[in-house]
Design brief:
The protein is an alpha+beta fold. Helix content is about 20%, strand content about 45%. It has 6 helices and 16 strands. The strands form 2 sheets. Strands 1-4-5-6-7-8-9-10-11-12-13-14-15-16 form a 14-stranded antiparallel barrel. Strands 2-3 form a two-stranded antiparallel ribbon. Helix 1 crosses helix 2.
């Protein structure tokens, strides 16, 4: 008792010195958090202030002491987050995992915890894999127009024989591991294989590189990587790239972020499509109720090729909403619209190309169901492109049954 009293006294003294930063604020005013008198409330504010000031060891000390005085899920959550920010990943994962399975938390909070668990496993090391039976109504994204206008005349189109409705399988595998104790440098490897009827439609993609998360700059992360793809057994493209991600709020990293990606696209056998690419993506996350979470993003993109007709400027907007349905059932609705304007007249069609692409999808899952130890997802997706050039217009419907797992703590914790 005497020890707890003196810890509380010292923490109260720290708050008196810095109290102006929280004048009129009651951070602990949550339904799940008991409304104690001033001492515990003030101790909580000290911990939050330490997080904001990036004094993570002090925040860990404060929330550890506070967790011994209250069983509040909010206190446990902030302790887990403080451990994460202090890069005590094993201890943080244990706290997050216990919260996820022992507490009756709002859906949006559960989703954020799963995002933290994925980041922790990326640092400590994890394997992830998925299997997906596929159904695609338009595997080549071929236009549904029967004739198009080319060079002053009408050209009748005959769809390729391998563009019929197809079934197949998609396989993916990924691994990540930190190379340093504080996870400031790590590596990642992602492999995907899309196996459709007929080898001419098969696609293999490999993405690997180095991840960077400097300890002294917790708001900044980065990647230096290399992506390569094969289509129909032939080399399709390769692209070295670099990405920088900035999160202004180092405490709540998922609230808002800005990423910038630069790449050098090398298209095999089609040199005129080789390009320097640049992209900026702004993402924001918001829990607009205790049972739903929205992630919105806005992006702009550029591609500069040697031949100007194939250079473009683009922009788009998208929205993902995750929500519970019943019991362990959950869902995700996604929608996006994007536009690309090409910079010069197409040499084949004699007009400038302008595209608008729309996508919409719904995914359902049940985290208590497993198939061969993996969590199943059911998805239905629709995609269409309208274009100033009829040849580039298409629409398609895809059905996906995906079996997912991330190996470390368990499949159902992450999906």
């Amino acid at each position: 008792m005497e020890r707890s009293f003196f810890i509380t006294l010292l923490l109260l003294l720290g708050v008196v010195i810095n109290s102006s930063a929280y004048a009129g604020t009651d951070i602990m005013k949550d339904d799940d958090l008991p409304q104690y008198a001033d001492p515990l409330q003030v101790i909580f504010l000290v911990g939050m202030e330490s997080l904001i000031k990036q004094d993570y060891p002090s925040a860990v000390m404060v929330f550890t002491a506070l967790s011994k005085e209250t069983d509040s899920a909010r206190v446990k959550l902030e302790l887990a987050r403080a451990l994460f920010l202090d890069r005590q990943y094993s201890a943080s994962r244990e706290r997050f995992f216990n919260l996820l399975h022992e507490s009756d938390l709002p859906w949006a909070v559960q989703e954020n915890i799963r995002r933290y668990l994925k980041l922790i496993d990326n640092a400590l090391g994890s394997l992830r894999y998925s299997l997906s039976p596929l159904y695609d109504t338009n595997p080549l994204n071929y236009t549904d127009h029967k004739a198009i206008y080319v060079a002053g005349g009408i050209l009748d189109l005959v769809p390729p024989s391998d563009n019929d409705e197809v079934y197949g399988m998609s396989y993916s595998f990924g691994a990540s591991k930190a190379f340093t104790d504080d996870a400031s440098v790590g590596g990642y490897f992602d492999f995907s294989f899309r196996d459709l009827e007929g080898s001419s439609l098969d696609r293999v993609t490999v993405d690997t590189g180095i991840s960077l998360a400097p300890r002294n700059h917790p708001k900044i992360r980065g990647k230096i990587g290399f992506e390569e793809s094969y289509y129909g057994g032939e080399h399709s493209y390769s692209m070295p790239y670099g990405t920088v991600i900035y999160s202004p709020d180092s405490v709540d990293q998922f609230r808002f972020s800005v990423s910038i990606k630069l790449g050098k696209l090398d298209v095999h056998e089609f040199d005129y499509l080789d390009a320097y690419t640049q992209g900026i993506d702004l993402r924001a996350s918001k829990a607009f109720s205790t049972n739903a979470q929205a992630i919105g993003h806005v992006y702009v993109e550029n591609a500069d090729t040697d031949e100007k007709p194939y250079s473009y400027r683009g922009a788009g907007i998208g929205l993902d909403i995750s929500f519970p349905i019943a019991s362990a059932w959950g869902g995700n609705f996604s929608g996006s619209i994007g536009a690309r304007n090409y910079l010069a007249i197409d040499p084949v069609f004699g007009e400038k190309r302008k595209d608008i692409t729309r996508k919409i999808g719904l995914t359902l899952y049940n985290r208590q169901w497993t198939v061969f130890g993996m969590v199943p997802e059911f998805g239905l997706h629709y995609e269409e492109r309208s274009s100033s050039l009829d040849f580039y217009e298409y629409d398609k419907m895809s059905f996906i049954l995906r079996l997912k797992c991330q190996l470390s703590t368990g499949c159902s914790a992450y999906n």
